Prior knowledge:
- This protein has helices spanning 12-22, 46-54, 60-85, 100-113, 117-137, 149-167, 193-198, 200-206, 208-234, 239-250, 253-258, 263-266, 271-279, 287-304, 306-326, 328-362, 415-427, 432-448, 488-509, 513-527, 545-548, 575-582, 614-625, 635-648, 662-672; strands at residues 143-145, 174-175, 184-185, 454-455, 458-459, 537-539, 562-566, 595-597, 605-607, 650-656, 677-679, 682-686.
- It is mostly helical and 690 residues long.
- Strand 11 and strand 12 (682-686) form a beta hairpin.
- InterPro entries: DUF6311.
- The chain crosses the membrane at residues 118-137, 192-222, 234-253, 310-326, 338-357, 410-429, 436-455, 484-502, 514-535.
- Keywords: Membrane, Transmembrane, Transmembrane helix.
Amino acid sequence: MTESPSGQGAPEHDSEAAALLTDASATTAPSVPHQPRRDGAERTTATEAVEDVSAPGRTDDDELQAGLDTGTEAEAELETEAEATGTDRSPETSDAPKHFLNRVTARIAAEFLRPSPALLLSLLYIALAVFLTWKLLFHPIASVLAGNPYDQFYFEWQLTAVEHAVTHLQNPLFTHAMNAPDGMNLAANPQIIGPAIVLTPITALFGSAVSFALLTTFNLAATAITWRWFLRRHVVRTETAAFVGGLFLGFSPSMMSHSLAHPNLAGQWLVPLILAGVLRLREPERQVRNGIVLGVLITAQVFVGEELLFLTAMGTGLFLVAYAAMRPRQARDEAVTFLRGAGFAIVTAGVLLAYPLSFQFFGPMSFKGIPFDIGYYSADLKSYAVYPNLELWGDPAKLDPLAPGGTEQAALVGWALLLVVALLAMWLIRKAAVRALLIAALILVVLSLGPTPVYDHKTLGFWPIGPAGVWTHLEHLPLFSSSLPVRSALAVSWIIGILLALGLDEAVLHRWQVLRGVGIGAVTAALIPLIPRVFDTVPRTPIPQYFTSGAWKECVSPGHHTIVGVPLSDGGDRTNETWSTAENTDFAIPQGPVMGPNSATDKQVVWAKSNVLWTAQWLAYIYKNGGGSTPAVDSAIQNRVALDLGTWQAKCVVAADGTQNLAAIKNFLDQAIAPGKLEGDVVVWMEPGR
């Protein structure tokens, strides 16, 4: 690779990073004419070298035209970069402002005058994200996502709880507002603490419903934008391939399904930045800076979506090991620099995450394990060839039985895309990076199948290691014990997107027009069935005026900060949770969708201890079944109910007018506590003398 003169050409670290995936470093490019720059200096980049080698036998005129086209495109990018960084790229820009604010101002002004391709394509991604979420984005107060309102209520509550903690200078990693009186280790449960902190002003001014809608739209657009940037900077040579790759990765089945109220898994916009940071660890001249930047990105990802960080590390590790095995000399040459930079990243992340992670794993209400059936949350091998119901060729009216829930359709990418990506990978199989990506994808697919691999719900007969899957041997290891197998398909989706971009890039630049047309047509045909559908919404259940008016404050006093709502919030119903959200979590609620330890001495996870107390069990039973089997209330039952209210630190039970089996609930609580009072749109039972 010919180094550019000082201040000329593409930064060396970008070319070297790109070489890992383009294999430019493994080839020797013939000398070809290059586009002169403004100062007369010629430029040679890794991407040009790849292009020259990828089309042997072409004429001198073809080579000259390719050099001119590539040089013009690269020069335009370098000019944009110069405007953004203030780097002296040419005599005309030698007096560019050096101050950060001046550079930012100059860049913004330049984008308005001459919008860059990156800006225009980013606006397209944003427009698509807004179109897909408009029903929620334009009506956040009145509607919720039809596909998963329960998790939306949970994350809206969390946005509110974090906003409450920040504005009251409390610890955002823990809250007593749910699962009273024990509270909730927010860092150990599914969390979006980072985005919640950033969105605190919006949540405080407009409510968590608005913040949630904005975050859902942002996750889609930002993920597409950062993936396009990563692909264009480090993987492909054409803007077309980068744009299409970003389009798929930002709006893939995995992104669409987890955008159904899983913002901790749809917030994938830091993943490409982390991958770029890993590639930059090979730069010998910037080891400290690159390591620190990567450490900061890793820290940020913990608070955006911790499980995504685990999947990123697993996928990246598999790729690097496979690539190093195929390029041992390159691996040896770069090992010391890479490991030294990785050391700085680990130290940086370790220092920044020391307290949060220790709180997560050893703090109050910390736990180990996962309370879900990992056999259910595993991918069926056949599901990879199926189309999800959130895309064009899926059935919007029903969920395919091969998918473990509407939010877990990451493995469903469709047979057409699998076929096209497989053909493109075979076309590029000579590249070590492509082979490494395929190896990583294969291992991740195997992991996604969980403890008992199946095809169309039937145990795989050809499985070489017996009926038990690889996950069986890993499920008790740290991190694996807290992850669901099917989510390994998220990382498979990333690899599919990268391979798609690499194949399309090769097709766009191929010297044979027929192959260019076939490649572009095949990719287009494979992606059309995956055109995403607009997210459907349903009307929200109105919050009772008893809470919005502040009348609920009669139910709280020193030592009694909990309000027991019927039905009690748990893994299914979230009614009580929405009341807490509406009032800025100013009062606590019992139970809720909380993971916690089995006991103070047993850290094994349980799901919220729902309906452990006697009163909770009977309220849940009467709510679901009516009062036919309700025991006759005597002094013993009255004492038991009073004891449970004391455990919850509550003096009131509240049920909204219109609650299922309200008459039976009222008959029971009238005798167990005191006659209920109808206060507007709720019935309130308050302990006498409180």
